[in-house]
Please model this.
Amino acid sequence: MKILIYGWKISDWSKSKTSAHALGYNLYLAFKRTSHTIYYCHKDDEDLPSVDIVVLVTYRHDGVDVGLVKQKTGAVKTCSVREVHLDCDFSFLFNPEHFTNSETCMVLGPPCNKELLYPTVKEENSVLIDHYWIDDYFGVHDRNDKRDWTFKIEAWVERVKKGNVYRMLRFPNEKNDMLQYQKPIEYTDYLDYLAKTSGIETFVITHRECYTYGVIDMAARGTRIISPEGFLPRCLVDVFGIEEFTDENTFVELLNDEIDVNQLKENVNKCMSFDDIVLIMLKKFEEWV
Model:
């Protein structure tokens, strides 16, 4: 079979800037370990190879013309991974909340590169505050209370912190809003990000997510995750035992709770390896080709 991985083309780990980008590269590497012919193209590439299957790894808002990609490649089927693309023939999903019917969707377990993600030794009482959310990349912080609690959480942490507090930086203007007590973790490549966050004991979600691969990165390495209630998809909260808070009092209680290290170490076993994910996808492809 000839298969095209289409979306964010990553030539090596240094080019992978987010957990979502890492998803595409992990899939590509797993497909390359099979006996099939695998191509990897960027969503802006004009020249596309002739293939049997196109695997789309992009955001829905990336503006990909799926019909044109199918026409150029002569693919029998197009499928999306991570999100439902209505123009694709099929979608492989990690969030069961997006499932519609078995004819067009299949739900897979939380994806995890188990060679990179495994339980690590933690820095006692260390806390990582996630980046905030903005409406556009170079815009200002979206302070809508229904979507983002960053400033509230920062104030709560400052009052009760017992160890180092780190702040994830993603957007260009975000460093200007850092508080003096925080240590920055700059926007960097995926492997460097993993190295800098491996010792974090507690990761605090700050903004609402549709499905966050960063949570899997943390959970698989035995990091405790706490989140405002309703900010994360239920599937991740349930699988990884993520505890939720509703106000400052419940936040402080969670932060001060004793951590069940052994339970957190089991989270990596709740994930599905990319090789297993690819085997399931290939079985579906064989039905089509």
